[in-house]
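Quick entry, no commentary yet.
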Amino acid sequence: MENVTFHDHKPDTLSLYDAVVQGLSQQQKSIPPKFFYDKRGSELFDQICQQPEYYLPTVERLMLEQNAAEIADLAGRGRVLIEPGAGSASKVRLLLDALQPSAFVPMDISFEYLKSSATALAEEYPWLSIQAACVDYTHSLPVPEEVPIGPRLLFFPGSSLGNFNKLEACEFLRLVRSTVGRGGMLLIGIDTKKNHGLLNAAYNDAAGLTAEFNLNLLYRVQNELKADLNPDNFAQKPSTIMRRAGLRCI
């Protein structure tokens, strides 16, 4: 497609190996959420977002559909639109016609998935200049030089800020500020507190996709690091209500 260009920054700020060694050496075991999003993980997450129990995407899409024109009036049309963690770019589609951006910069950590989703978007919006960047947006937000000079709007939906701890969230927002620059804007999605039952249903969907999404990380560790483990011996805890559910051996 003539209206899409790819920029592979080969993000390697922390390797999967280092993340596993560091994360599993801690008393409270953890691995950064970004490692869930290889091509398979990204595909699974898109399916999770379509499940009836996962309320957040449905509510957010409705809000964007109803308020796209007002958002465009407030932000102004013709801005450079930047979306870290763009994934399939399903939500930004609800804003493109209203915002009429001078360029769109989708960012994702999985180059294969980024290429697939940006190519599809370019076919649907032949008027849109797309500069797709493969980056680890938790550490950098490099905007390609080909992007036109002008005011910027960074779009960060999905309550993804909740994946960071307080320090990481502050650092990311500072990074956003420096990226959008003077006169720049941020359109961000933040969820409110929810009751235990609603969260448990959302992150333990009946189709089992969230469990498969979490277990996919173990398959990555097994395949990419040749780790001596059997992912079939693990299962998601039914009581887990966190966005990145825990695992237990069975």
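second:
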Amino acid sequence: MELFIPYQFWILFAVAMLISSIGFYKYVYFISLGYGFSISALGVAISVMYFDNLSTGTVIACVLFFIYGIRLSGYLLIRELKSTAYRNKMKTEIKDGKSMPFGVKCAIWVTCAALYVTQVLPVFYRLRNGAKTDIWTIIGVAVMALGLILETVADLQKNSQKKKNPNRFCDKGLYRIVRCPNYLGEMIFWTGTLVSGINVLHGIGQWVLALIGYIGIIFVMFSGARRLELRQNRNYGDDPEYQNYVKKVPILLPLIPLYSVAKYKFLVA
């Protein structure tokens, strides 16, 4: 009988710990640059560990992990390096972590690394359990690709709108459907990841770990949407157009009349 957590999991955990340790340089990097680059590295690590078992579907999934992470962290890094206004704004919006005890930083580091590993487990377990490409893999990677495209387009549209009017909220393109289309794209991406392994997860142990990763990232996305809503309320709350916009456009899920999550204080991550 296989151990509840195989040693290959700990190899992936070590990879995520190494990459996400960038957060000790700047606290926010635990959940930004460290996140994206960790997912990319995990995609590579899974491919290397199970090279002989790779099939078309799992290759595509691992490549999508790599592209997803590089795109996300690359976008965040370029935005930070190129935009002085953005850096100055984030100094007031995000804690720098300088006063945070070292032990707390270590706890965040370990928690983030563990979350990143559990997010990729549906693909990991497909390979570990010796399963090849099937209909679930095809559906899963298609949904992953859709989420990646949606997230990328949302970021491009936001950049375009902010260049034209940096002091106005985004309400065009995908932002007419939901107010956080980039977060929606991320949730779709990880939903596809879970779907890709839905028929190969064996036993309660594999299911628990995979669901921890999926539920965890969904929680993080809703938490991010709440932070964004609170920030936008501070910046645009007196704008009648903004007030009309937030009353008509759902915050995160299309066609679902959830227009605000600001009151849900448990959404803190």
